[in-house]
Amino acid sequence: MKRKNDRGFPDRNAIVAFIKANHGKVGTREIAREFGLKNADRVELKRMLRELADDGIIKKKRHKVSEPESLPPTLLADITGRDSDGELIASPAEWDEVESGEPPKILIEMPRRPKPGTAAGVGDRALLRVERSDEEEGPAYRGRIVKVIDKAKSRILGVFRSLPEGGGRLIPVDKKFADRELNIAKTETQGAEDGDLVSVDIVRSRGFGLASGRVKEKLGSVKSEKAISLIAIYAHDIPLQFTPAAEREAEAAEPANLKGREDWRDVPLVTIDPPDAKDHDDAVHAQPDDDPNNKGGFIVNVAIADVSFYVRPGTALDRDGLDRGNSVYFPDRVVPMLPERISNNLCSLVPGEPRGALAVRMVIGPDGRKRSHTFHRILMRSAAKLHYAQAQAAIDGRPDDTTGPLLDPILKPLYAAYACVKRARDERDPLNLDLPERKILLKSDGTVDRVVVPERLDAHKLIEEFMILANVAAAEMLEKKSLPLIYRVHDEPTLEKVHALQEFLETLDVPFAKAGALRPTLFNRVLAQLEGHDYYPLVSEVVLRAQAQAEYSSENYGHFGLNLRRYAHFTSPIRRYADLVVHRALVRALGLGEGALPDSETPETLGEVAAHISLTERRAMKAERETVDRLIAHHLADRIGATFQGRVSGVTRAGLFVKLSETGADGLIPIRSLGTEYFNYDESRHALVGTRSGAMHQLGDVVDVRLIEAAPVAGALRFELLSAGESAPRSRRDFRSQRKSFKAHPGRSPKQKKRRPEKQKKSRKGKKGQGKKGKGAKGNAWTQ
């Protein structure tokens, strides 16, 4: 029986249960029909749905509602305010409002005597343990503070603009504070000059007028490209300096020796990296297996720098490494996770020098499948330092002085082993989204020289596949030993995203019949049948956007993109803290000596670490992306009025985002500049469609644009569209959609306006705008 309150209206729990029982989205019409509600009840129903959405119990997107995505048990959250009882309310720090609607609210439960480091206030960022609330009223989640990560900011980064009378104004770099300029008095400038990048402490905030600030630090002129990466570093609070204690520990570290290690110095392991790599933390070697029971098989050795030997749990080096979480790579600099004494010296597998390493020896069958593996703590000596193109050229018949002597004894067995493991990879059929990655090349003065797309070689794939095998071996070994670890996980796409993809593919007459469990093969099949077709880039982009984002977790739910049941990061402990944790766990599990994972580490504590380093990874990706945007905007600032060819990389209600073919730069074409007619946003087709002409601008379209504006500090470009839109195909579905859009945007159809002007005028009242401006193009949704 459907539960109702005293007035005969369904209660909150009954409505929520109905929404959860109906996967996908339902609207007020379906809810009213289910509970037999009259038109007079619609106002009360909408009020209740709005309250449920505000509390995060349901997700509301336009006229539809659905069950929200569940929050993980441990996450980073921003404390946004207080409820009517004065209790703190938080929201997830990472939440995609475009895809998932309003973020759920979390009620913070504070103990009477908070532990040190857990006292928090509005504006702070904290690590929380959360669970679903069993209360009928209020937020959908309740949480407990594990640790306060960042206190509310009272310092802003921006560009100093001097005033003729002295002093100046601060133009904030962060787009969120773009309209919050600060007044800097003449006595508070600390000698800052016009165009300097500065950090400013807020000293007074007024109820009206500009707030005041004091220059705390000068970071250099923003006119110099060499200062551009500093914007992202300071804007995202990426630690730039190591603590003195960590530096002292790094300087005191001694090179590894044979004590407690196997001697692998005669094994000809080689490193294969990008040509500009400064640290070399992985080396490989392969040879045919001489076991008669494994004819046609191989022995593959992967050796990884033994960072756990130098960075011990609880030390200053460990604390600094965890704080950073990972290295951050900019075109002009690297912000390393560990000091250079460790990352570029003692743990870099340079040729001819003895180095400590943790190695895995894998037996590969003739079918390419891994049959067994063993881990070893070794002392090794790299036989050579190669880069990808150099190794590939040797295999392709163009060896040089370095690769010539290595070709037969080392390189050919490596490539033969790769050809073997590739059979198993192809059979596994991981998600085949091999998207090109652009790289900015700089001149000696730090200015942009050009943007290139490095060729994807078999040498890249060889190293990638061997690293995946080693990562799987590490996860399997630790599970076998029942030790806690940090997994690299990647969830399958949500049903909502799969349904959206199906609807989009229907508009292209491309079948996507989902039967049984969701597998990467389904997406690969779609991509394969469109390869070489004009729609291929468009469909690749939409398939990418349907995927979840990979993350770290102490709980294993598999890696969908790689189609693996268990996976952990083991191969880059110099630049990723997750790999260091896995190394420590292996040392403990196998009794390999010093630097083991402490007994105090549990799945719960590692869950907190995983949540933190997932955030630092996303922080690094965002900082790297913003820096590239700023560098290219700086590079194009003197080409206003020039025309470029690009591809539509995002479609929103704000307009079209276009990625330039020449540089990969993204810029916006505002919807208001598309023409004199009104354009509707067609979500299923990822397109803007003109109501009068039917002209359609769709995700993936190749277009010509003119550069109208470049803002280097913000990393923003604005374009004017020069290409005409394609005519939208007409079908019954299109006409139904158009009728709905006329209803949603009354007054836009001349015929409707003539027939019922009064009703349209009334319906326009309170109409929402075009929606939030946001970048339509996203970075890779999943990574290894």
Keywords, separated by commas or semicolons:
hydrolase; five-stranded mixed beta barrel; Arc Repressor Mutant, subunit A; globular; five-stranded mixed β-barrel; OB fold (Dihydrolipoamide Acetyltransferase, E2P); 784 residues; 19 helices; cytoplasm; 25% strand; nuclease; RNA binding; 6 domains; alpha+beta; EC 3.1.13.1
Structural class: alpha+beta
Report the total helices: 19
- Mean of pLDDT: 83
Instruction: Return Rg in Å.
Output: 29 Å
Total domains: 6
Beta-strand fraction estimate: 25-35%
Low-confidence stretches: 730-781
Sheet with the most strands: spatial strand order: 4-5-6-8-7
Overall 3D geometry? globular
How far is the N terminus from the C terminus? 48 Å
Main sheet specs: 5 strands, mixed, barrel
How many beta strands in the DSSP annotation? 35
- The helix content, as a percent range, equals 25-40%
Strands, helices and their partners?
Blueprint (H helix, E strand, L loop, with lengths): L11 H10 L4 E2 H8 L6 H13 L4 E3 L2 E3 L7 E9 L5 E5 L4 H4 L5 E3 L16 E8 L8 E10 L4 E8 L5 E5 L9 E3 L11 E9 L6 E11 L6 H8 L8 H9 L9 E3 L5 E4 L8 E7 L9 E8 L10 H9 L3 E2 L4 E2 L4 H7 L7 E11 L5 E12 L2 E4 H8 L11 H22 L10 E4 L5 E5 L5 H23 L6 E3 L5 H13 L12 H11 L5 H11 L4 E3 L23 H14 L12 H34 L6 E10 L2 E6 L5 E5 L8 E4 L4 E4 L4 E4 L3 E10 L4 E6 L4 E2 L4 H13 L5 H6 L1 H8 L20
Helix pairs in contact: 5-16, 6-7, 10-11, 11-15, 12-14, 13-14
Protein name: Ribonuclease R
Keywords: Cytoplasm, Exonuclease, Hydrolase, Nuclease, RNA-binding
GO molecular function, one term: exoribonuclease II activity
